[in-house]
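RETRY 2/3 - previous attempt timed out on the joint model. Re-submitting the same 647-residue input unchanged.
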Amino acid sequence: MRSAAFRKEGSFAALLVAPSLVVLVLTTTFPLVYLFWSSFQNINLAMPFLDGFAGLDNYRRMIGDGGFWHSIGLTAIYTLATVVLQVAVGLGLALLVLRIPAGQWMFRIVAILPIVLAPVVVGLFFRTLMFAPNFGILDFVVRWLGLGPVNWLGAPTPALVSVIIIHTWQWTPFAFLVLLASLAALPPDVYEAARIDRANALQRFWHITLPLIRPALVIVVIMRAMIALSAFAAIFAATGGGPGTATEILNLYAYRTSFVTLDFGYGSALAVALLVLTMIVSGALFYMRTARTS
Amino acid sequence: MSDGKGRVTLRGIRKDYGSFQALKGIDLDIEAQEFFALLGPSGSGKSTTLRVIAGLETPDAGTMTVDGQDVTHAEPGERNVAMVFQNYALYPHMTVEQNIGFPLRMDGVPRSQIPPLVLEAARRVRIDHLLHRRPGQLSGGQQQRCALARAIVRRPRLFLLDEPLSNLDAQLRLETRVELKRLHRSLDVTTVYVTHDQEEAMTIADRMAVFLDGEIVQVGTPDDVFNRPDNLAVAAFIGSPPMNLLPGRFEDGAVILAGERIALTHRSERAAGDVVAGIRPSHIRVAETGVPARVVLSENLGETMLVNAEIEGRPVKVRLPEVRRIGDGETVRLVFEPNHIHLFDPQSKRRID
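RETRY 2/3 succeeded.
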């Protein structure tokens, strides 16, 4: 009796879950499986006569592909630079704002604004208003300092610096908000004890603040690294990966291979490589986090 | 043992928080190597005074000197003080060993010299077997000992304790009280101790200051404060339960209470006038003759008995040395021991000798 009722209830539950499960499978699992499948095929719209099973050819091709390694290098630079800048600037701002006795809420609200903008909008906004030579705001400042004009998005190194600045501008507020909340929750009497124990401001920061906000720092680093590895829209809108391939991180390279060169097979393999890279990096960071706390 | 002597002087210390006057001009002298308690109810300014001594609060007015040297505006670290906080304020991410060693590291003590000093401090408070635990893995009593060890490891000139026993259970509180006293004797460091528990202050302190509403109402030995309260405020605060305070009249070396004349042996030269008579519950006896009182409630405390009675509608508490049957509503006669009656001026609220 009871098991029959239980079965009935179980099937009713499955019925309730089914619609969302179907949507989930169709929108995430299926594309992912299809991506893996494509990465083992030759699918090239420019040379359709070569289509067919490719085995590991696409992956072998990666090893000898200079463009791939170039984009991996750019991805590493981009991720490392943006994450370090976000954490450093965000933490610095949070420490400053924490000292403001009243009106912290204003900074919290202002900080949310860049986060809610679509990355495409941010990319376009920087390209047209900030970095445009001669009339961009940033270029104006640089010229005023006697250092410009700089062809921000038109020369390889400034372009890479520019996309790093764009990403940092948009996402530092995230680090700022998380770290501000973490700092605000620190126990005040521990700092009083440290002052009595003769720790100066720098020592208090190093020996007390940093270890105590470490969990928040690690979470920020993990989340930001995962997003930076797969960044796309802002760079695409600002430089399109150019000039040349100067800002073409792996995600953009995979996109160009698939949708410009129309080599879907190799593009899929590149996307899988990005997926694996992201999983390895975030997995390693998570491992470091749990290894230290236990 | 400590490098300084540790004589603390406060003059006219004032501290306001917005419109709230936390300290209304505190004058205090704490002698070197003394165990000094700051006693008062919450909000009376005792903790603020301790924080001013520590340098965690800057007074709005007044000066503070230690051994004659003005430290009113000195940073906490420049004062060579150590403090045990009410919630211990241990560094949660450090082990017990690192917690105790932290003041030494900040002092620039060479790394090789730190472990023996840490071990010695930990031994003194008997937590040397817990050195590798973190504060989160310790019981309340162990955390408290860790905070004590961190405070004594550096040999400070002043040792400040902010309600250190209030988070411990009753049994542990009694044990730790004794240990604190012993620790003070062996260290010979001026110790300032904040508490709201008068029994704690009475048993542990050499001298104490009683705080009420941001002011010091009496400074003296526990004996002084208990047996010779300076004013009505202290009389009404000290003792558990505190003194009974009854309006009366002084005439010809006697006090008249509820129509009953009680001859006082030791005060005769004073002019006649209204007084407030104070007498501790344990200095009243139930007898055949005396002031009539109606019993409201009698509480059996095991060894003794506390009788809540009323004399002419005013509550009076009587502590009887033995438990006996007294029915509620019964009328008893109370005898006040004449040499234990304290007199206060109802206008100035000061003690009359």
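Chain B is about 25% helix and 35% strand. Closing ticket.
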